[in-house]
């Protein structure tokens, strides 16, 4: 006889399973990423059919091995409002993509669910005031940096990858450069292997993204202009492609949306 378990988690992906069922990919605190069958969810008027990605769920599941089945679903919180803007939708989908790539099945990762909910809540809060697409970009970049760090692929922003010296950007010294070398990290000075160069302010901004909060001025405005945030996005994309050997398509979509916003306002 199958025992009933109760789990709480964030739905990451939902796809078809056979003719009438759905396959739910969910992130839980206890078991990491799990894949569960939702019987009959594709049938009209199914009581289990309302589940969608980016919902915080309370589930009752049955089964011992292989593919467990969902018997009850309660939505604790919906992040459906993220779909109001392409920027927040792309940012949230990028989080889901990166998690699925980095963390294997049934591999619990302490604090991952808590971290993801913090960033989703920040994206969701953008819809409660005058929308700022640049903040969505900043939250997306920081969320990826935090997920990478938790999964063992942290951007090495503390020391020069060539000399071992501390990476301390001399703010105001505009002749100083830092080179981003995708295979190695960040090096002081120019490098023939660099894909991107940064000035002191740009490096300092990137380093601040390792901290808990998105960096703002005292007047409430986001630190850094749009072109700098797009540069930081490129660094994160390149780091992921180099070390995880995968592309996050939602980050590409986010870049295109941000750039098209500029074109539409000109």
UniProtKB/TrEMBL annotation:
It comes from the Bacteria. One of its GO terms (cellular component) is bacterial nucleoid. Pfam families: RecO_C, RecO_N. SUPFAM superfamilies: ArfGap/RecO-like zinc finger, Nucleic acid-binding proteins. Residues 1-79 form the DNA replication/recombination mediator RecO N-terminal domain. Keywords: DNA damage, DNA recombination, DNA repair. One of its GO terms (biological process) is double-strand break repair. InterPro entries: ARFGAP/RecO, DNA_rep/recomb_RecO_N, NA-bd_OB-fold, RecO, RecO_C. HAMAP family: RecO. NCBIfam families: reco. Belongs to the RecO family. Involved in DNA repair and RecF pathway recombination. This is DNA repair protein RecO. It comes from Prochlorococcus marinus XMU1408.
């Amino acid at each position: 006889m199958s025992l009933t378990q109760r789990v709480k988690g964030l739905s990451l992906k939902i796809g078809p399973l056979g003719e009438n069922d759905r396959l739910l990919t969910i992130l839980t605190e206890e078991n990491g990423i799990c894949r569960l069958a939702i019987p009959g969810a594709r049938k009209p008027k199914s009581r289990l059919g309302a589940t969608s990605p980016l919902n915080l769920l309370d589930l009752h599941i049955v089964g011992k091995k292989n593919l467990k089945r969902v018997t009850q679903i309660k939505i604790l919180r919906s992040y459906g409002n993220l779909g109001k803007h392409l920027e927040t939708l792309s940012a949230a989908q990028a989080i889901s993509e990166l998690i699925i790539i980095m963390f294997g099945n049934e591999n619990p990762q302490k604090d991952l669910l808590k971290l993801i909910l913090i960033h989703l809540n920040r994206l969701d809060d953008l819809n409660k005031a005058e929308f700022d697409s640049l903040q969505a970009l900043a939250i997306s970049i920081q969320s990826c940096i935090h997920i990478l760090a938790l999964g063992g692929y942290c951007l090495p922003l503390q020391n020069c990858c060539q000399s071992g010296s501390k990476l301390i950007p001399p703010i105001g010294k505009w002749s100083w450069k830092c080179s981003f070398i995708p295979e190695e990290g960040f090096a002081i000075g120019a490098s023939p292997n660099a894909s991107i160069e940064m000035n002191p302010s740009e490096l300092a901004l990137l380093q601040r993204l390792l901290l808990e909060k998105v960096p703002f001025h005292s007047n409430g405005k986001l630190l850094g202009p749009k072109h700098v945030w797009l540069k930081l996005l490129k660094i994160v994309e390149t780091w992921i492609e180099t070390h995880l050997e995968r592309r996050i398509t939602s980050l590409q979509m986010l870049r295109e949306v941000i750039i098209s916003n500029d074109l539409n306002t000109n």
